[in-house]
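Appendix B.2, paired examples.
Example (i):
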Amino acid sequence: MVGTSAGAVLIGAAGSGRRAAFDEALEGLQQAPPVIHLAGSKYAARMRHGVLSFMLAQVEEGMLGTRHELVHALAELLGSEGRRTVVTLGSPDLIDADSAAVLAQLAAMNKICLVVACERLGQLPADILALHRSGRLALVAIPKMDVKQTRLYLEKELGGPVSMFATAALWHLTQSNRDLLHQLVRELVANEKLVRQGGYWVFVPGALNVGPAMRAHVSRALTGLEPRQRELLGLLACGGPVDMDRLYRAGMADSIGVLRTRDLIQVGEKPKGEVRIKIPLVAHLLRDRVQEDQQENVESMLSQLHADSQAATVVTEVNAMLELGNFEASVAVIEEFAAHGGYAAESWVRDPLRQMSILKAEVEALILLGRNGRAGSTISRASEAISTAVAGVTDDTRLLEARQMVRIMRARMALVDGRPAAVEELLHTEPAPQVALPESNRDSKPVVEDSSSAGGPSTTLWASEALHLRAMAVQAEAWAVSTQPEAALRVVNHIRSDIEGLRNTGVLDQVMSATDCSDIETSMLRVELLAGRWRECAHTARRLAEGEYENPRAIALGETVLGILASLSGGSDMALGSLWPTFHQLSAITESGQQTVVEAAVAFCLADQERGSEALELLSRTQTVLERTSPMNFFTWASEVMASMTVAILDTPESAASRLDVMAGRALRGGSRVLEMNSLAMALRMGRADAAPRLVAMDTQGQGPVSDCFVKLARSVLTSDTGMLAQALEELIGYGQTIYAVEYNNSLLAMLGHKERRRIGAAVARANHTEESESGGEGELAHRDREEPVWMRELTKREAQIARRVIVGMSNAAIARLSGVSVRTVEGHLYQVYSKLQVRNRQELADLDGADRIVVPTQ
């Protein structure tokens, strides 16, 4: 930036971190140059050389007679130390033309390095734009922070680790605007909406209750707007997105241009051009402002923009609550809506798609709260009401979409209730009314195209591609949990191919919403978990956790799944790094759907790290699958597996294997062949020999290579064929199922000889190295590719883990975060390491490791 070029233009949205990028670039220089910060303003724009006034005040008046003399004087002033001064310029569209010409000339003469920050090139004055077009001012795009960068930023702001849900919620609310984030975090901490729990910052559900500083931000955003433009923003905040054609009919479309230029709204890519407020936090604050002002005409104006203004208001309010994890409040709002005729047949006729959004939000919230019975009865009542509506109106394609979505929700509810066999019938038996489909959907495909795997072709035609893919995803999940995981995976591949095709042709946003994509991706994630393709599942979970669909709950789910898979793969340190904050966050938002599995995973990781008392305390309050009546799915299976492995560490492997044997029986009674096989395979791993003949006797036809590996494990145990056993373990590692090949309480590894164990260990190391490389891991795995040095034998397992992390250069704070302990605990372990190895500091520990590398050659 400060080399031979004239400077750079930093392009990025307000709050994207343009100043931070500049500061980081400056810190990278060996010798920092002098810096002068300039910024345009309305006042400066009205004055000749206004933005340069404070510099010109330092120049003798006699040297400012002509443009040449002025430039020469400034050149001497700014270059007096023999090196170029860096001049930054913000808000370049608010400076006068003479100032722009002088700055451009100084940069062209290499007297200054000019760094201009703006949102788009159109804001550059003509002389500076010409300098850029000549190639002298480089263009540097500053993208907005992603979820990972936002988490690092928040942890720096708060001085401690932050839960993924808190990060995702704030990232979504502010659209990663650093200025908004900085102020919002301060106010949320003051209002106890961000609280420290167990050493982690978590988000407490409920209204934001922001203070005057954030309200002042909204006032600044509205400055200069006409009353009509402010009114439209308020209506969008209260009623949610509006189609462009409705704005035209209401005579309000003339405000769109100004609001879009001010970056307050965005217009979607759908054919109707959906208009919404760009930053969700602004919508929250505007909604509060409208409610406080009690504008009497809001409801009447909303009725011009929405077919059902009450439904529009409710769905907007509920979605805002769900964004913040406030499930209880969202259910209360919807129940009040329903009590006043919200779900009546005539309401479905007025605006079926928004009614459907409200119903979907209520059912999702009830499931997350563990109230499956109420969720099921809510769907049944809605189904009756929409059937009544359809009987009275037979030519409304929106009603057809809503009715088909109810069918998909009933099928999904059957999965939640543990009835996968009922899914196919629920998806296909209800006859669709004879309605002319939209032109774009007349070639809509049936849910199941592979009749050989489904038992027969389906004749259902779906009203939209989004519904079609949703139905396929639910059907795939039913097959995965019962007896056809390979057929389920084929459907998943088909769905991914369809979505990728829509994305590549640039029409995905017109066909499916981000919510549709997020829901479908989550279903496919569950299919991959059930089918045992954990490596593929980790890729899917990582995409969700990285915020591909900007859904805070999907982001948090992705992080949780990655933590669970890490714990099931022997990576207890990595697992605790993500599961500890998730554990505390789930306690704050009272979500029961994932809480049990996270508690069990944390307990197992603690036990694996020789923190038995903490693990026992947590396990004693964790209700296991065998103690509950909830249906079997991957998460309930995983919670029992990890609870059993914790028991194996704290008690005996035999008692753990017995629990898994009982769970296999329960899976059999629930019709889940996949989870039955998984349970028996884990019991076999823990030494339950009688699980082997049961696995061999099971029919695995059509269940895929993972199930075949389980049978191969069982056969190798029955025949004592260690070659077959090693081959099966390697194949399982390839699918991400490294749990069968890691050391603790593993009777399968005990059967292998030294050479075969080393072969399996190398396969695990390669798999972990690949996984950590893809996830930006810490680089510790180089130590696992060789035999542990002799001095490691003097340390406990926990101390050895700390030592390895110190050797690869991790700080105590980083080790504490990854291990889920305090910095003081890390310091205590490190003191023990130094004492046992008779070294004084980190450098001597690294030297000891280096000496061992030389003395002990790789075999």
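Example (ii):
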Amino acid sequence: MSSISFAQKAHVKGIILDSENHPVAGVNISASGNVSQSDSNGFYEIIVPSEKKISLIFTHVSLKMMSLTVHLISNEVFVFNPLMSSSEEQMGEVFVSSKNKKRVQGITNVDVATIKKIPGANAGIENILKTLPGVNSNNELSSQYAVRGGNYDENLVYVNEVEVYRPFLIRSGQQEGLSFTNTDLVQNVDFSAGGFQAKFGDKLSSVLDITYRKPTQFGASLEASLLGGSMSVDAVSKNKKWSAVTGVRYRNNSLLVNSQDTQTNYTPTFADIQTNINYDISAKWQLSFLGNISQNKYLYQPLTRETKFGTIDQPMALAVYYEGKERDRYNTYFGALKTTYKVSPSLTLKFIGSLFHTVEQEHFDILAQYRLGTIENEETSNVDFTRGIGSQLSHARNDLDALIANAEIKGFKEWKNDSQLEFGLKYTRESIRDRINEWEMIDSAGFSINPPIAFLPKNSQHYTPYTGPLLPYQDVRATNFNTINRFSGYAQYNKKAEIGSSQVWYHLGARFQSWNVSGAAVEGKNQTVFSPRAQFTLKPDWDMDMVFRLSGGLYHQPPFYRELRDLKGVVNPNVKAQESVHIVLGNDYNFKIWNRPFKWVTELYYKSLSDVNVYSIDNVRIRYVANNNAKAYAQGVDFRLNGEFVPGTESWISFGYLKTEENYENKGYIARPTDQRLKFAMLFQDYMPSIPSVKLYLNLVYNTGLPGGAPAYSDPYLYQSRLNDYRRADVGFAKVFVDGSTKVAKAKWLKNFKELSVGVEIFNLFNNQNAITNTWVRDVYSKNQYAIPNYMTSRVFNVKLNARL
């Protein structure tokens, strides 16, 4: 091999394989005047200039040429394992964004291959995010997550630079079905847990930035399991101008729901189709379309439930018999058109237009008749003494139709002195048509229980007759037709410089947003917020590969429709944007153990929040007070150690400490609903040394209990409880027949596959009982209320097949 030294240089290396996964010797690699060649094992290494875009060309006498474009920072080592074909010339340029560049920006890059392998009841990108520090979730059936004291509505999600939304009416994790993101189509996943740059939107907690794949050759994949399946196809035109990746998914959660305490007739159908189409009009002008159609049908007919709880000395049981059913439907339609025009080598402009339409209904009438008592014999579960009997009738006719349109212009200007300017302007129109009509009647031992309203006379039946009004225990009725118009924009300046022999990066920017809420019966005032943000990164000239980051600023979250609607369903058009002063101090250290790469990341953060919109969480449904009458704070520290604990595989361990409290109407500070004090998670990949093709994947999470489970009507300043700790381990075993490093010469039929594996997954390996909420039952004799935990899924077995052509 030969190489040329540069004042600032980086390394690209890897192993070159052919279409049969055999190493290829004698491949010539050229980049910016530097030349290298692969050896007999297919291994190559080449030195390239850093801090600018460089094209690498791979050529071989019997294989087609391919190219790669990289943009690396000084001393970065980038690993690229190309697959060279004898039948197709890969003329499409592949741009590889530098992981070290994301390291400078405090962004966590998640490996797409890892996402597909790791088991979980709701597998996908969110399943992996929940193992990262600062990210918390106590619901394996949900794709929602809370970040550093925020709630589910405080997270930005982008796909191909287009913001995506989640359904409005979903109240339970088992109703969600499918996350928007289709893992089969994903090329890159970036995540920031706080202190993110001004170019991202107006939320308080986190950014998930996803890029879908732009294929360079035909391919197809299939995944099938007892929970459903998915299929994707990569297509490329002969002239390479057109390319498309399309995926279809289907999911049925019956396997998981049937493991819960409640016996049901459960018929869910969760299905969607997505496509990402790209067209290269010219070398300077590209066009792309992202589309999604999703239909989630949820038919739920509970039959019986039996839950054991209490203590060893006094075991108790709740038996419930149901009548009625729930019928929900969530249909979403999404389309986004994006065009990119390279005005000059240093200036790029983008136009993005998108349309999101959701039609949702939540209809149910369920009568629950219960019996509460002590257990005579824990083995037989016979109830020897009945403490309470009663019934509960729940009714809902909730319908929502929302249409959200976006139009955005973005620009990127680059100068030769290692500085860039990013800017954008966006208009959003949100049209919401919402009817909420839900109520609940509770009967105990033959008389109706009134809501906890002070002016109602005391109900002392059976001892004295009750002559007051009979009212639903909970009653929410409202009809809202609202339109929200928003203008937002940002400007951000990026600069790389040197302080002595150390490198420093600056990211300085600001955002603004102006909005107005109007409707048939309401008219809100115009509101505007301004959000300056900054990031500073220092890489000292030390022998240790260490980076220090300081980031933060003033973050605002203008209210979305959910945040405008109060506990009675009435819209308050003048809800202000929640405001957060956010500071993050981080340290990132790369090192080697056993001659393998490892990384230790530490982040210390503090948020001071004002104009807080207080909320309560019931499963995954959030209800806001909608009055901005609180202030709050969140503080904590996150640690993450990741690396090759097992050669050739990436694993990590995460630990986080968080404390977040709020002060509502100056009553004093109490824990917020997302006050997740301690979090520990492990993601581990391994294989059997004697049989390397048998892989093991472990996903383990431990979270301390969240505040929650209290009756919905209770005042948290008078009564606040915590749920039990959340403990869960999911494990998967897979027999890999073909992957990127497997030789398949002995089995000719396997030559058609790029990947093929069959595996078994065990969800909730240790069968831990995790509660998401409590059902409160009254004992009419003692006047006590008992908290009956609503447990999540128990141990479940799943079989899974993965194939890719």
